[in-house]
Amino acid sequence: MTELAPFRGIFTALATPFDEQGKVDATSYRNLIEYQIEAGVQGLVPVGTTGESPTLDAEEHKRVLALCIEYTAGRVPVVAGAGANATHEAVSLARFAKQAGAQATLQVAPYYNKPSQEGLYAHFCTIAEKSDLPVMLYNVPARTSVHLEVPTVVRLVEDCPLVVALKDAAPHDLTRPAQLARANLRENFTLLSGEDASFCAFLAMGGEGCVSVASNLVPHAMVEIYNSEKAGDKNTTASLRDALLPLWQALFCETSPAPVKHGLFHAGLFQTAKVRLPLVEATPTAHERVERALAEVARYKQSFVPRLLAA
Predict the structure, then answer these.
(1) Is the pTM higher than 0.70?
(2) Is 111 designated active site?
(3) Regarding beta strands 43-45 and 163-168, do their DSSP bridges make them parallel or antiparallel, or are they unpaired?
(4) Which position among 138, 226, 261, 274 bears the catalytic label?
(5) pLDDT tens profile 47-82
(6) What are the tens digits of pLDDT across the range 122-134?
(7) Which of 85, 122, 163, 213 has the fewest beta carbons closer than 10 A?
(8) Does the structure show a pLDDT above 70 at 120?
(9) Are 119 and 156 in contact (CB under 8 A)?
């Protein structure tokens, strides 16, 4: 396995565009990926929750991942969503991701069946060993009903060399980066926020980046806020945080990714704002919140929003 640089910075959790017939829209997907890379994001995460992986069938899942790898063309790492609540299925998806050319996989804690900490440990170890591809763990208790605890993360990092990062969406406990730092884990293991709204606090506690929904729309701003925090420029970080907070909140005012897909449609990056049932498109109230928040970002710096909105 080629040695990877540690996963640090802004990784965009890509939304998957659909056309008027509800099929994957490859043209819009290419446009989104080019926008991300031009903005300087450090990596892309296709077919995760934001990419509506639960409602993509197996062939669509593979196609969207293959398109992302093709369009990215090695310019930034691709961390392929490959999670499942059946370990054998996650292994199969991870093996496909490796064959397709992904640099790592994102592995969510198994949902619905609520494994124990021992079950989580065995699940992630098995995926890493049987796929032979680096793994970014994903802890998101609000969606899975299970919580990947700090001792289990430590054990996984110590026992599984291919476990290289954690996307942590447990905003109720922002001490987790500091707890993991105290464990003196290997240098190539990194901790990334999985929630935009707590991203700055996460960095302040020792986190090293974010797997971001907001960066679908405002990747330049997300990269700048990360860079300012790492440079110790607290004034810039604070002003950016204040400008972005309404957008971070608006994008989760209804079930994601409906609000961000409205934003992408509003910005002209997507042809439609369609999501797949059982999700429904964002309501007019959500539209207003997203558009108002984007306008606030544009007032802060016009180049932070897509060109159509900046015109």
Answers:
(1) yes
(2) no
(3) unpaired
(4) 138
(5) 999 999 999 999 999 999 999 999 999 999 999 999
(6) 999 999 999 999 9
(7) 122
(8) yes
(9) no
> Of the residues 62, 98, 167, 274, which is catalytic?
167
Which residues are 79's β-sheet partners? Answer: 104
167 included as an active-site residue: yes
Domains for the chain: give ranges and CATH numbers: 9-231 (3.20.20.70)
CA distance 173 to 202: 10
For residue 1, the model assigns a pLDDT of 40
Contact between 140 and 107 (Cβ < 8 Å): no
> Average pLDDT for residues 275-283, to the nearest whole number?
98
Measure the CA–CA gap between 237 and 231, rounded to whole angstroms: 10
The 3-state secondary structure of the chain reads CCCCCCCCEEEEECCCCECCCCCECHHHHHHHHHHHHHHCCCEEECCCCCCCHHHCCHHHHHHHHHHHHHHHCCCCCEEEECCCCCHHHHHHHHHHHHHHCCCEEEEECCCCCCCCHHHHHHHHHHHHHHHCCCEEEEECHHHHCCCCCHHHHHHHHHHCCCEEEEEECCCCCCCHHHHHHHCCCCCCCEEEECCHHHHHHHHHCCCCEEEECHHHCCHHHHHHHHHHHHCCCHHHHHHHHHHHHHHHHHCCCCCCCHHHHHHHHHCCCCCCCCCCCCCCCCCHHHHHHHHHHHHHHHHHCHHHCCHHHHC
pLDDT tens column, 175-221: 888 898 888 888 889 999 999 999 999 999 999 999 999 999 999 99
Residue type, 139: N
